[in-house]
Structures are given as C-alpha cells and as structure tokens.
Design a protein that fits this description.
Length: about 100
C-alpha cells in the first residue's frame, strides 16, 4: 500500500504545483497537534506516523500529508467501531484504508 493511499492523500488534497506546497518543521507539526517533537521522532523510527521528507539533514512534513493524517485519526466517539468512522473520499472506511490485512 502506498503512503498516499495509507494516509488518504489524494490528488484533491495535494497542492498541484509543488512550489506552492507548504512544508512544516517537526516543531511546527508538534505544536499544531499538541504533541512533542520526540513523539514525532519516535514515529518516524517505528513507522505509522505522518509521511515526511528528509532534505539534507532537515525533516519536513507536507501540510497536505499532515492534514490527511489528522483526518485519518478522526472518530465520532471513543467507542467508535469501524462502521462509525468517517468514510474516505473513495467511499471506504478510514479504518479499512489502514488495515494491514
């Protein structure tokens, strides 16, 4: 499964001109999500986090990937099962889109 499919990053959520894409630092993403930079670093090592770019020694996140990842974490309640999770634009449930099977 590609990262674009895994995190529901489609052509409609991506900026068409790469020169117009906004890139965020890990500090900006951590602040945006109320998480620590260390959590983002751990997710980059273990996987399952937001897709990232490594440009030289600098880590950057595309804003479109951050938004797609955040939307994939959306639940209607703490007891939500796969059926109550919002649908992706292609009609599949978000949980099904992340299934490892």
């Amino acid at each position: 499964m590609t990262l674009a499919k895994q995190f529901n990053t489609t052509e409609s959520t991506r900026v068409r001109d790469p020169m117009e894409e906004r890139f965020l630092t890990e500090k900006e993403v951590a602040h945006r999500q109320g998480r620590s930079v260390k959590t983002l670093q751990n997710q980059r090592v273990s996987g399952g986090g937001i897709p990232f770019l490594k440009l030289g020694g600098a880590v950057r996140y595309r804003l479109s990937d951050v938004i797609a990842w955040e939307e994939s974490c959306f639940f209607l309640s703490t007891s939500s099962g796969p059926s109550s999770k919002p649908k992706t634009p292609d009609g599949a449930s978000s949980r099904a889109a992340h299934s490892k099977f």
